């Protein structure tokens, strides 16, 4: 068949950052700039990077949020792929969902106060909005005064967000990224748990009900292939790595934990 009749495709890789200190402590993190743990750094180097190298994936640009756990994961992944020269674009619109006044509290602690059903609704429900963060929260001023958020336009700095609000926030930047992919740019998006879910909804056209059941483990590359002419997906997503490891880590994400 002549090459002009062959379908031209391009791949996109979506990835949640490595374990953060708040992941380890099982706390709601959101817009607090929690760093990676040593294990989180190891996940980026020993889980994500080898999976990408084994699949012979390469990148022209990496998108992250402005939060350190996102940027550091991307930096470690690229370094271990010998691709430290690949440019990174940090965008505040790709920040984790803002968990409002839940920020800084252990999930089990909140479940003991409000009940497990309410906590799971706040964590996984599409339109369930946690209480707004207030000045009594120890992280309120830490977040509001963090210079990494200087580019957030006036009136757009969230005090809390539902999953649906996060889906809406990332839509404009997703449209920009998708256009790059369809133009042939090889893109890695290294972001956060709820942001990866929001992007999955946009990419896969998942319903509001179905996205509530999607759980994304740390450092597992999720690969998509696009028809560059039509913009449509070619097949479904492929998670790179050991299936049993992925299954175990996905279950941990879904649970409220200790």
TrEMBL record:
<dbReference type="InterPro" id="IPR029033">
    <property type="entry name" value="His_PPase_superfam"/>
</dbReference>
<comment type="similarity">
    <text>Belongs to the phosphoglycerate mutase family. BPG-dependent PGAM subfamily.</text>
</comment>
<keyword id="KW-0324">Glycolysis</keyword>
<protein>
    <recommendedName>
        <fullName>Phosphoglycerate mutase</fullName>
        <ecNumber>5.4.2.11</ecNumber>
        <ecNumber>5.4.2.4</ecNumber>
    </recommendedName>
</protein>
<keyword id="KW-0413">Isomerase</keyword>
<dbReference type="InterPro" id="IPR013078">
    <property type="entry name" value="His_Pase_superF_clade-1"/>
</dbReference>
<dbReference type="GO" id="GO:0006096">
    <property type="term" value="P:glycolytic process"/>
</dbReference>
<dbReference type="InterPro" id="IPR005952">
    <property type="entry name" value="Phosphogly_mut1"/>
</dbReference>
<feature type="binding site">
    <location>
        <position position="107"/>
    </location>
    <ligand>
        <name>substrate</name>
    </ligand>
</feature>
<feature type="binding site">
    <location>
        <begin position="123"/>
        <end position="124"/>
    </location>
    <ligand>
        <name>substrate</name>
    </ligand>
</feature>
<feature type="active site" description="Tele-phosphohistidine intermediate">
    <location>
        <position position="17"/>
    </location>
</feature>
<dbReference type="GO" id="GO:0004619">
    <property type="term" value="F:phosphoglycerate mutase activity"/>
</dbReference>
<dbReference type="GO" id="GO:0016791">
    <property type="term" value="F:phosphatase activity"/>
</dbReference>
<dbReference type="GO" id="GO:0004082">
    <property type="term" value="F:bisphosphoglycerate mutase activity"/>
</dbReference>
<feature type="binding site">
    <location>
        <position position="69"/>
    </location>
    <ligand>
        <name>substrate</name>
    </ligand>
</feature>
<feature type="binding site">
    <location>
        <begin position="16"/>
        <end position="23"/>
    </location>
    <ligand>
        <name>substrate</name>
    </ligand>
</feature>
<dbReference type="Pfam" id="PF00300">
    <property type="entry name" value="His_Phos_1"/>
</dbReference>
<feature type="binding site">
    <location>
        <begin position="96"/>
        <end position="99"/>
    </location>
    <ligand>
        <name>substrate</name>
    </ligand>
</feature>
<feature type="active site" description="Proton donor/acceptor">
    <location>
        <position position="96"/>
    </location>
</feature>
<dbReference type="InterPro" id="IPR001345">
    <property type="entry name" value="PG/BPGM_mutase_AS"/>
</dbReference>
<feature type="site" description="Transition state stabilizer">
    <location>
        <position position="192"/>
    </location>
</feature>
